[in-house]
Structure to design on (275 residues):
């Protein structure tokens, strides 16, 4: 057992535990905090796989952006101190059976899968990513990069339009 | 570095996916359902990155797929929360059972 093996299982246990807590707790604010820890675990998994840039993006976008957005919307819409109503036991059992069944189904195939793992090293350094992202040659990502900026602009405008307060009607 | 076989990483991401599915089925509150969707999207990202690292380390396709997925997930979360806030303003509730206006 070297340290990389131990750290993989530790990270996995961490992110799965907090994931389970995020979907089972009855306090909505705690659910957001457990989700935050689970996302931190995923970022740690990216670090473990040597994708430093992706881990940084994960921390900035998910933890710094999405979770903060979720927490703000909880503060705006919920009484965060109160417990959420308990889900129906039948619904819980069905959901549990479906999830465990689906997991067993996929785990069965994974256990028999035979991948030809390559031992090469990934060059996921920031200069390499930047060159690939802005490259217009074959295999470059300049066009998706532009498209994603259009998508972000569209969603920004969409958010403003949706959340815009309707003008007060004249009595 | 490949002390852990690829299937173990995939097992972790599968488990995370079904945790998200469980939350999506049991939760009745739009914000917590959104959290479950985030877990599902993240498990898919782990898959992309793991395949990239273990099977095609000389390319970076999985990394870029994950980057774009994260961007799309951010846009999706922003729009979803705008809709949720608007729904709360008109219905004073964000329970999925109360959001049936289009059905009437």
């Amino acid at each position: 057992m070297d340290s990389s093996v131990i750290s993989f299982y530790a990270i996995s246990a961490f992110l799965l535990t907090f994931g389970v807590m995020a979907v089972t707790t009855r306090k909505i604010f705690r659910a957001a905090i457990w989700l935050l820890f689970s996302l931190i675990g995923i970022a740690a998994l990216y670090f473990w796989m040597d994708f430093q840039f992706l881990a940084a993006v994960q921390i900035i976008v998910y933890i710094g952006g999405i979770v903060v957005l979720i927490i703000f919307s909880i503060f705006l819409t919920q009484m965060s101190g109160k417990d959420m109503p308990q889900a129906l036991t039948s619904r819980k059992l069905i959901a549990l059976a479906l999830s465990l069944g689906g997991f067993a189904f996929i785990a069965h195939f994974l256990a028999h899968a035979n991948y030809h793992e390559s031992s090469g090293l990934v060059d996921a350094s920031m200069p390499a990513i930047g060159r690939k992202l802005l490259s217009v040659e074959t295999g470059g990502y300049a066009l998706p990069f532009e498209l994603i900026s259009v998508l972000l602009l569209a969603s920004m405008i969409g958010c403003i339009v949706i959340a815009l307060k309707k003008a007060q009607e004249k009595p | 570095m490949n002390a852990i076989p690829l299937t173990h990483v995939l097992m972790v991401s599968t488990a995370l996916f079904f945790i998200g599915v469980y939350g999506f089925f049991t939760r009745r509150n739009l914000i917590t359902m959104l959290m479950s969707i985030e877990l599902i999207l993240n498990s898919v990202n782990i898959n992309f990155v793991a395949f990239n690292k273990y099977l095609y380390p000389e390319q970076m396709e999985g990394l870029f797929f994950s980057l774009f997925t994260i961007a799309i997930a951010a846009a999706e979360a922003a729009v979803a929360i705008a809709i949720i806030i608007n729904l709360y303003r008109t219905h004073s509730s964000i329970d999925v059972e109360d959001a049936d206006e289009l059905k009437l």
In short: The helical segments of chain B are 6-26, 30-54, 61-91. The mean pLDDT of chain B is 87.
